[in-house]
Amino acid sequence: MKRFASHRLYIPHLGVFLKNHVVQLDEQTGAVTDYYPFTEEISFTEWLNGLIVLSYDSPKILLCGTPEQMSDSTVLFVDSDKKLRSLLPSEDDNKLLILNAYYITSFNVSDMCFSDNSIVLRLS
Fold first, then answer.
1. What pTM, to 2 d.p., does this model score?
2. What residues have CB less than 8 Å from 110, skipping those under 6 apart?
């Protein structure tokens, strides 16, 4: 198993935004097997600054505004109240089989915003 920890964990399909959590992945498939609060140092856990997203599909980042229409994948955006939000694809388009972890680079946790350099990387 592999473990990653970060300042923030977002689970779009549950609408849950958590602070200081660990995500555990299956080494063979890369699928999420567990997540739990970061309460103490755990050996062989990689710390990632910023944001990890648990999603059934590879999320897209919207830098400004709010999404106007349904997408074929999850869309992440920050609303006017500086809260992380998401627009999920319709259930017909989303197979909802395996939950994966994605690291969002260059996400500013204190300002709650993406940057022009933010990209989505699947953790495995």
1. 0.91
2. none
